[in-house]
Protein 1
Amino acid sequence: MEPIFDKLYQFTYKIPGMPLDCHQYLLLRDPAILFSVGSADMARDFLPKVKELLASRPLKYLFISHREWDECGGLAVLHKMFPETIVICSQNAAGNFKFNDYDGKVIACTPGQPFTDGGLELVFLPYPVEPHYNLGLLAYEKNSGVFSSADLFLKGGDTAGVVQESNWKDLVDAIPENFLNMGPQQPKTIAALRTINPEFVAVGHGPCFICR
Ligand SMILES: [Fe+2]
Ligand SMILES: [Fe+2]
């Protein structure tokens, strides 16, 4: 399997009944981290591929942006296959994972909190995600330049492996007001986005972006 960007692997599934792709990503740094685990069906299908890519290395972390079926529906599946993996998520999501049959390790983080482990340096951004303004997180991994944007640049169509060239400032400027019902806290997210400078935007749904 070829990476979509440096040490970054994308796993794509169609969302049933919708013209929308759902992407998950493995960032094969030391330690390795997965961005989103997808639904249970997706997890059952792609986690064996993750295991293959890891070879004998552990999957230390799973980052979950927010508590929604396409981000964390596969948590119990992951926990069976990778019992040592630690979930990184917002305080809000961390309090709710028992509903996903997950009782593994969780680190609840807040926007701006520094998080460094070996070759990983994560920056967390606030994400007042739909549908209930739940406080989620977005994650930027500084050393790789990879930004995990969850639903932020959501677009439909067939987008597996699709990467478009763009410019970070233009991308942020083009986010519509109240995008996906982000509500009154959207300006906080936009302000936080302006403090980072990603090289690659790993989107949850739609084409990815390489920033020049
Ligand atoms: Fe979502
Ligand atoms: Fe999503």
Protein 2
Amino acid sequence: MSNGMDLPAQVTVNTASHSSGSETLIVRVDQPVEGIDFNVHTLLRGTDGGLITPTSRKVECRWFRSKSRRGCSFENCPNSNRIATIQNLQNGLRYCSNQCFQSAFHNKNKKSSKSSSNSILVTIDEKDRKFISVEPFQEENGWEIISNEKTYVPSKEDVGYILRVECRAVTPDGRISAVANSKETPIVVGLPKPAPPRSLFTNPDSAKLRHQMGMKFDSSKVRILSYNVLADIYATKQLYPYCPMWALSWRVRRKILLREILAYDADIICLQEVQQDHYTEFFYKELEGLGYQGLYKAKTRVAGKIDGCYTLYKKERFRLVESNTIEFNSVARAIARTNAFEQRNDALRRLLKDNVAQIIVLERLDGDMSHTQGGNTLCLANTHIFWDPEYSDVKLWQTHLLLQELERVVRNRKNIPLIFCGDFNSMPSEAVVELLKSEKVSETTKPNDPCNILPPVQSITHSLGLISAYEHVTGNEPRFTNYTGHYVGTLDYIWVSRDSVLPVSTLLIPNEKTLRGTDDTPLPNTRFPSDHLALCVEVEISPTNAQAQTLSMNQYQMQ
Ligand SMILES: [Zn+2]
């Protein structure tokens, strides 16, 4: 940037009109966050008030940082971008609230075990603020120049300070056509620290079970992650008013999501609610550059932004053998064409919900089963079932259909092991989970079916022999996998073939106190970037063999 250096430090409106005639440059800034690209949003209007296309002008910026710290000095402050107005006159540190002041004070005393300043603590209450004061910030300290680039990435040193940006528009021949009023940002907030590590729970009976099942399991474990990452199109202020806007923004959430996903170091990743543009612009670049190979399938909605399922596997461990997708809309239309629905139009209206599923077959490259015929392949499925609680019939219809397709794929390949992940939008007590788990649906749990889309209850069955990995390892499904201000419940599951996949360990779901953190809010919040929690399990996979297929449910339950 050649002209950036000589921009005057104090820019006024006069300069703008002097240098240009009358183009107007309007600058808007977001919340700056440590480590996240911070772009200014600019709008340029010409002499006639019309918008000037950004390509015909180059916008140059210069960044400053305030010399005085503005944010709260308490390291666990829940209001990290609020101006600190309470000052400890003894050491000059400022806090955003009496609570932060006291917490910082307690922390300091704990660390240094100094009792000399106890006298301050006893004086702090709302009426008597002898040692604290409320003082406006003065500009006397001035500003320090920090960058001449258009995009600035705030550093750790910027946290707690505010930034100021000065921008100007330059024509292709180098003439300054407009200078914007300088703009101050909110206080730079630190990138939220990762949530505390989740503990890995290992089923103490898994070795015994392996022996009882009489099967040769492949001891090199496979780690599976299933995670609904909350698409940006659904991450609205209306749905999640308790989450600070900056933490809800995609530019911040994507960084925290990626950090979390990579930390699990899973061999197989099944993501749901991956927005299509974020797949191409972000996830694809980040994950497929790190040894993963992936397949993306968007929902079938035609208009507007859409999300979908994204299934990835580590290239060094697996090779893709076959891949299928299911578009539930297409299946519904195909069934309608055969006149199988009694109320054709009503049934279609009810069923066309755009949901999709992915079914792929992978060959293991590193297992010790490659000598066993068919023993080194497995089937992997990923889905996101329709969400609306008023549509339990549609959820069951989608799940039933998907299970039929999975049976076809698995049987065609001599009963290869199956791993089936997803957000099923169904609680453990609901028909969808009953079908997955017990291979049938009872009359009592069968949902209301206003458009007669479901077959007779005795035909809603399968024989895939599935168990839920979490329930198998811990004895129960998690208490919740979705934890928001308007809903708390278990909706996500990892299902595996009980005869050939042995779930060994799971990452436990954090407790409510950990989830809610110091800001005491449901999800998403500053440390948990989605409304769902990631499920992560380690399994051992056995080769397909005749013995495995003859194991009955009863034998299996004998522990
Ligand atoms: Zn504070």
